[in-house]
Amino acid sequence: MDAWKKIKEIEDEIKRTQKNKATEYHIGVLKSKIAKLRREALGLKARKGKGAGFDIKKQGDATVVIVGLPSVGKSTLLTKITNAESKVAAYRFTTVTCIPGMMEYRGANIQILDLPGLIKGAKEGKGRGREVISVVRNADLILILLDAIGIRDYKIIEHELGGFGIRLNRNPPDVVIKKLPVGGVKITCSRKMKKVSENEIRAVLNEYRVFNATVLLRQDITVDELIDVLEGNRVYIPALVAVNKADLLNKEAKIPSGAIAISAENEKNLDKLKGMIFEKLGLIRIFTKKQREGADLKEPLIVKKGSTIGEVCEKLHRDLKKEFRYAMVWGKSVKHQPQRVGLEHVVRDGDVVMIIKR
Question: How much is the average pLDDT of 34-51?
Answer without folding.
Answer: 68
